[in-house]
Amino acid sequence: MTTASDLPARRRRHARLIAALTTLIGACAEAAGAVYQPIAAAPGQDHVEGTLWPPMFA
Questions:
Q1: What is the three-class DSSP state of 38?
Q2: pTM beyond cutoff 0.85
Q3: What pLDDT is recorded for position 34?
């Protein structure tokens, strides 16, 4: 059972986990930008051809 004295510790723990997750997401976004930015900035790349496949439902 959760008591009133457990709540501040739980909130701090949740805040630390959220901060760590935010940092991880930011690092992933930076890495993705480093990989894809040169591709996006390449000259003459106005469009990309692709193949559309029909949706598959299990």
A1: helix
A2: no
A3: 94
Chain segment 3-56, per-residue pLDDT in tens: 667 789 889 999 999 999 999 999 999 999 999 898 888 888 777 788 889 988
Amino acid at 41: A
Residue with tokens 């959220």: 18
What kind and span of H or E run contains 26?
helix 6-40
Q: Which of 3, 1, 21, 25 is nearest to 13 (CA)?
A: 21
**Nearest Cα residue to 36 out of 25, 45, 49:** 45
The alpha carbons of the chain give a radius of gyration, in whole angstroms, of 22
Q: Which letter does DSSP use for residue 6 in this model? A: H
> In the structure encoding, which two tokens stand for residue 42, read together?
């390449």
